[in-house]
């Protein structure tokens, strides 16, 4: 057995979340091992983003979310909440980070997310949505996390850009040894990159290796409609 992969770094037990009397998540249970790529999938309104936020303490819940001692986490939201016309360059944005990064460190993380250093002189209104998403990833990596949590990292990005973003995430995971928890609507990405998938629709509907648990019947239960009957095949 791979000793590194057998180290449990997160355990979630009986997690429940209600907002204004409405049950959002009910009796959620799963664990994550070091080096794992966990994909969380489910229809709109299933509670995926709420679950992700609860894992980093941004949502109140009952039950337990237990991280191994000393685990550092980085969180990448769907999109940047900063106005793109703000008079701020990319370099100035990085210097706002709490770790007070040196220029050398900033250049290093830009390399991780495969961006040229020329972008540092650009304003946020001058760069693409995909570039802004990579900058958010680089920002999260500045804190040297053990775990990266991504909420729909390709939201608002075209198909070509999506492929590029996911290749970047794979590069980060393999080269930095990161554990990844990823919310995604793209089942092809789940099959290609995830070691474990959590099917979520307010409750746990499945948990396991994608090719073992994502049967047509399970996808029908999760999504309904024609998506459930699309057979995903990937050549390794």
> What's the number of helices?
8
CATH H level of the largest domain: which superfamily? Answer: P-loop containing nucleotide triphosphate hydrolases
> What is the level 1 CATH name of the largest domain?
Alpha Beta
Number of domains: 2
Question: What is the chain-wise order of helices and strands?
Answer: EEEHEEHHHEHEHEEHH
As a whole number of angstroms, the C-alpha radius of gyration is 18 Å
Strand order of the largest sheet: 5-6-7-3-8-9
* The CATH topology of the largest domain: Rossmann fold
**Poorly predicted residue ranges:** 1-5, 228-236
Helix amount: 25-40%
- Give the CA-CA distance, first to last residue: 23 Å
Per the principal axes of the C-alpha atoms, what is the gross shape? Answer: globular
Strand content: 25-35%
Largest sheet: 6 strands, mixed
Describe this structure in words.
This protein has 236 residues and is α/β, with parallel strands linked by helices. It folds into two domains: 1-71 and 146-236, P-loop containing nucleotide triphosphate hydrolases (Rossmann fold, 3-Layer(aba) Sandwich); 81-144, no CATH class. The chain has eight helices and nine strands. The protein has helices spanning 48-55, 90-94, 103-112, 129-141, 159-176, 187-193, 210-213, 216-222, and strands at residues 8-19, 22-33, 37-41, 62-67, 73-76, 147-151, 179-183, 196-200, 204-208. The chain has a six-stranded mixed β-sheet, with helices on both faces. Strands 2-1-4 form a three-stranded antiparallel β-sheet, covered by helices on one side. Helix 3 packs across helix 4. It is globular, with a radius of gyration of 18 Å. The model is unreliable at 1-5 and 228-236 (pLDDT under 50).
């Amino acid at each position: 057995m791979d000793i590194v992969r057998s180290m449990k770094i997160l355990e979630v037990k009986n997690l429940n979340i209600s907002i204004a009397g409405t049950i959002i998540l009910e009796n959620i249970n799963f664990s994550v091992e070091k080096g794992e790529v966990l994909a969380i999938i489910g229809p709109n309104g299933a509670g995926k983003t709420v679950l992700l936020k609860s894992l980093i303490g941004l949502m109140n819940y009952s039950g337990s979310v237990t991280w191994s001692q000393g685990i550092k986490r980085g969180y990448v939201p769907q999109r940047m909440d900063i106005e793109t016309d703000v008079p701020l360059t990319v370099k100035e944005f990085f210097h706002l980070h709490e770790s007070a990064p040196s220029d050398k460190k900033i250049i290093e993380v830009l390399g991780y997310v495969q961006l040229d250093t020329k972008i540092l002189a650009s304003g946020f209104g001058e760069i693409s949505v995909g570039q802004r998403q990579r900058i958010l990833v680089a920002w999260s990596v500045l804190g040297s996390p053990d775990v990266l949590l991504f909420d729909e990292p390709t939201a608002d990005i075209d198909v070509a850009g999506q492929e590029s973003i996911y290749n970047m995430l794979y590069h980060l995971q393999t080269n930095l040894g990161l554990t990844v928890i990823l919310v995604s609507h793209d089942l092809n990405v789940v099959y290609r990159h995830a070691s474990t998938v959590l099917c979520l629709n307010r409750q746990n509907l499945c948990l396991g290796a994608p090719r073992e648990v994502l049967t047509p019947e399970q996808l029908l239960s999760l999504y309904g409609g024609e998506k459930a009957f699309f057979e995903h095949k990937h050549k390794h």
